[in-house]
Each structure stands twice: as C-alpha cells, then as structure tokens.
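Worked example 3 (structure in, sequence out).
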C-alpha cells in the first residue's frame, strides 16, 4: 500500500519563496496585499457589475498602461509604516523646532509689511493646493494595481497632509502679527481668483478627474508634483530668503526632502513600466498631454513671485530634466 506523500511546510509565504532567502520586513508587510486583484472579473468577489467593481475594471484593469506583474514593483526606500513614523517623527520635531526658535526670536515682527502681503497671496493659499495633492495621492492609493504602489501613495498622502498643516500653522502665526492683509480669511478668494494660482487650480482640478490609475499617476507624480516642488516650494523658498524670511526657506527645504523620496519611488515605477512593450508610448502621450498644463501653472505662479528673475524657466527646465532622467 502506497503511503501518502508528506507535505513539507513552506519556510516563508509562497509568493516570496522564489527569492530563496529570508524575506525582509518590507517584503512581508507590503507585498501582494490587494485582494481586489485576485479575480479581475469580479474585483470585490461580489456582483461583477455593481458600480465600484465596474469602476475598478474600467480605470485600473483596463488601463492602457500594462504590466504582467505590477506586484514586482518595490519602493526603493523599502518604507513600512513603522519606519515611516520613525522618520517623519524626526522631520516633525525638526519643523516644529524651527517654528519654536523663530517665534522665540520674534521672526514675524521683523518681516516687512510688503513681504507679508506677498505671503498672504502666494504662500498661505497653498493649503488648497496641498489638499488637492493629498486627494490625488489618496485616490492613487485606493486604485493602484499593487499594494507596493498603494503604500508609496499612502506615505505621499501623509507627507502632503503634513505640508498642509505646516502652512496652516504659519497662517495662524502670521495672522497674529499682520491682521490687515487677509491671513486666515482671504486664502480661498486668492485660490479661486488670483492669477498666481489659476494655472495650478486648473491643473489639479483636471488631474483629480483623470480616473485611470496610470494617467492619474502621470498627471500627479510626473507633472503636478514636480511643478509644485520647483515653483511653490523651491522658487518661493528662494524668494523668501531674498526677503529676510529664512523660516519659510528652511520650511520649504524640509518639504523638499519628502519630495525627493516621492521622486525616487515614482522613478522606480516608471522604470518598471518602461520594461514592458508599448508602455513608453503611453507614458509619453500622457506627459505630452499634461506637461503644458504644468508649465502654464509654473508660468502663472512664478510671474507673481518678487525678486525671482528667471524662476519660471528654471522651474520648467528642472521638471522636464527630471522626467528625462527617468526615461521620458
């Protein structure tokens, strides 16, 4: 009588066994977590034709950007929730240390009234811009085709919320020193009507309805975020230093540290996509569609920045050079 074969227990999760080594913490807690990709015809294991299932099948599964295994994507920083909190706890301590030190030295009392008026137009309305970036990243988190992509989008969402809260904090501080220029009262009006913001408002409002996951990724991470980083963070930070506002310059520097990490995972995802036939044409087509809106947003914003000759050209060139550097 034949004896039944004895099943040997796996030494690790089946989807990680092929690597023939002990999986890292990042691999264990980050990979192959999306149950909605198990059955493409019924993403939620329910009626395949209920509205949310149709949405995912249309805007994720049927995306023109294709890859046989999106789960192959890895975050270059291998960030997990634990290490993200450790890293950003240090970042927040640094930022709030800046706030405390500059407040103790009476920084806002030394700001000239003319620069305060510029901040009320060109800085504190940025809360609306950062919130739209946050919403775009949150949507990408929900609809991305792999958990490793979703995780990166989640941390990016949290970073942008931090940028928003930093701006809100400074808005309140500035309102205590300058009660006649519209801090904490006029930001929405500036966001909706001031020429400086209308390019970014158009870009973000259109980007938020780019429902295809990959086109939304292009509009957000390859066009909108680089435009914001080069114009609203880097160029504004430089103008701030030229006007004696060292605090804002240091704050935007800290935010650009986050932006560098966002660019690393964005570049890694583009590299993975470019390894599959046909994807370069898809990505190039979307960049050609969205980049003019990004450039127009940079032009409109930088045209209003004081003491910033050539800022728009520098910002556009930097964004384009970064895209070229990752193969687009």
């Amino acid at each position: 009588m034949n004896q039944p074969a004895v099943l040997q227990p796996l030494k690790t999760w089946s989807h990680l066994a092929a690597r023939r080594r002990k999986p890292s913490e990042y691999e264990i807690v980050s990979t192959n977590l999306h149950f909605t990709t198990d059955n493409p015809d019924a993403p939620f294991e329910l009626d395949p034709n209920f509205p949310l299932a149709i949405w995912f099948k249309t805007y994720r599964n049927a995306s023109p950007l294709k890859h046989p295994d999106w789960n192959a994507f890895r975050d270059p920083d291998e960030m997990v929730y634990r290490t993200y909190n450790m890293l950003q706890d240090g970042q927040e301590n640094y930022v709030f240390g800046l706030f405390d030190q500059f407040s103790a030295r009476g920084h806002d009392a030394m700001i000239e009234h003319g620069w305060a008026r510029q901040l009320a137009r060109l800085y504190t309305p940025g809360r609306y811009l950062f919130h739209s970036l946050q919403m775009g990243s949150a949507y990408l988190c929900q609809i991305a085709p792999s958990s490793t992509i979703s995780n990166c989008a989640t941390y990016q969402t949290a970073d942008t919320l931090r940028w928003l809260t930093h701006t809100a904090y400074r808005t309140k501080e500035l309102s205590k020193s300058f009660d006649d220029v519209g801090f904490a009262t006029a930001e929405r009006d500036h966001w909706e009507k001031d020429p400086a913001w209308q390019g970014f408002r158009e870009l973000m409002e259109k980007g938020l309805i780019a429902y295809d996951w990959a086109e939304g990724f292009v509009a957000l991470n390859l066009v909108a975020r680089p435009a914001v980083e080069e114009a609203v963070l880097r160029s504004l930070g430089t103008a701030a230093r030229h006007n004696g506002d060292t605090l804002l310059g240091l704050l935007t520097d800290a935010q650009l540290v986050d932006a560098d990490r966002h660019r690393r995972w964005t570049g890694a995802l583009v590299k993975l996509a470019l390894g599959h036939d046909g994807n370069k044409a898809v990505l190039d087509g979307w960049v050609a569609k969205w980049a003019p809106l990004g450039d127009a947003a940079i032009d409109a914003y930088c045209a209003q920045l004081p003491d910033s000759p050539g800022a728009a050209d520098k910002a556009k060139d930097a964004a384009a050079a970064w895209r070229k550097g990752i193969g687009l």
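Notes: The chain has twelve helices and no strands. The CA atoms of residues 5 and 11 lie 18 Å apart.
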